[in-house]
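I am writing to request your help with a piece of structural work I have in hand. Here, with my thanks, is the record as I have it:
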Amino acid sequence: MSTTPDVSVVVAVYNTMPYLTECLNSLVRQSIGLDRLEIVAVDDGSTDDSGAELDRFAERYPGVVKVLHQENSGGPAAPSNRALEVASGRFVYFIGSDDYLGDEALERMVSYADEHDSDVVVGKMVGTNGRYVHQKLYAETSPDISLYASSLPFTLANTKLFRRELVEKHKLRFPEDMPVGSDQPFTIEACVRARKISVLGDYTYYYAVKRGDASNITYRADHLARLRCTAKIMDHTAALIEAGPQRDAVFKRHFEWELSKLLLEDFPALPVETRRQICEGLAVLLEAYFTDGLRDATGVKRRVRFGLAQRGAVDELTRAIAEETEHGAPPFLLEGDRAFAPYPGFRDAEVRLDDHWYEARETVAGRLAAGTKLESAAWEQNGEDLALALKLRIGVTGDTSSAVVALAQGAMPKTADKAGARKLPKDALRPKAVGEFTREPAEDGEGTLLSARIPVEPVRAKRGVRVYVDVAGTTYEIPVRTGGLPMPLARRWGRTIPHRVAASPNPKGRLVITTAPLWEPKLGVGAWLRRTLSRSKRK
């Protein structure tokens, strides 16, 4: 019988009690069995009881749990490298010492790797206690995926099964000068060198835990440390993958994730010198790796922030983030079939950032929905005529001739965007405005005001109030939300057959006009039959 274990699990440990106990328990109870398992844990100078807990497991599981102790190195790279020097399994697997595995995780992954001759196996990973884990990669199981044509670039943690022969052949190790993100150069190079990468989405293999005090090292690093580490990752990747679509496919993650996180709501509160250094560092990476293809595929909000950083326009960038945090995104400026997001710096001669950076070319349904607000609603009655008078604000300015308010029967289709709006299909009929209708710029310049007088008909119906607007050649349907605004009281009107009408929010907060007769008139047999047949035809 071979004494070589099937898999060596590497655990870099620094002050992770009490999470460490659950991590180790999840390893020793693996269905693969202790005879096929090796656990190499390195205590990186812990000051809590982590070291003692490791020793307790080593004593309880001799020959299976191997423990090394060293002075603190400042990150997981050094202890992981030291563990690799000791690991002897055919495969090596890395786990965070505050995380844990599903009971069958290692057996399933090793079996799949042997069956498909995989060099890297990625098992489904989920977050717990509010920790975010990108899920798209795990939509289905596949024996052979590409780093460049899948969601793998958004799942670059080293929490995967690697064939140790691959690791040693290419001398893969973790850069020890990176306090965060040191697993990415290792993982990226392993995936570039691998003959086959497999993904398993059929079982929850890995549970990533966000500690109650959010003390995971990923959450502790400051902006400049994260910027420096991301630059090292990208430079390392650029040396492995030549410029072109494949490199862009990997770097899309770094621009959308790591670098974008440097320009969030906390940016304006940073010291001026820190903000300046962030912009300088970003400018280097943008100049080197932010290709036209990546720029054009980036949403306008993120693209403008990158553009201002690259120009060194620190004040304009700070203002853009602060104003959007407080007031929301600026209204789109419509010019013909083009739409621009006029953030600070737009057409500023000193900033000199081309209009292309400010142009919205992506789907903007969510932003349009967020920028559409009901400002007032009231009944207006003239004799037997009743109408609902509305004033709405939409988040567009400029050429708003396409914007209309219309009524729609029934619920939004399932294809509607979660944000509360949707793109209409190209061949969809564009509804006409209802009732009397006017458009005018808002006095504060923040969007356009639409005034509509919607006549109410004496019928049994439930109809949603929606705005339709063209942005950059696409028509968007936006349900009007009441936003907590008090609605006018339900009305009774009509003499021949009295009706009741109500304007109210539905369970999703969308404005709906409901009309119905107060009672059904008495009908003769002939009239009853005609009405029944008429209803059947409408269905």
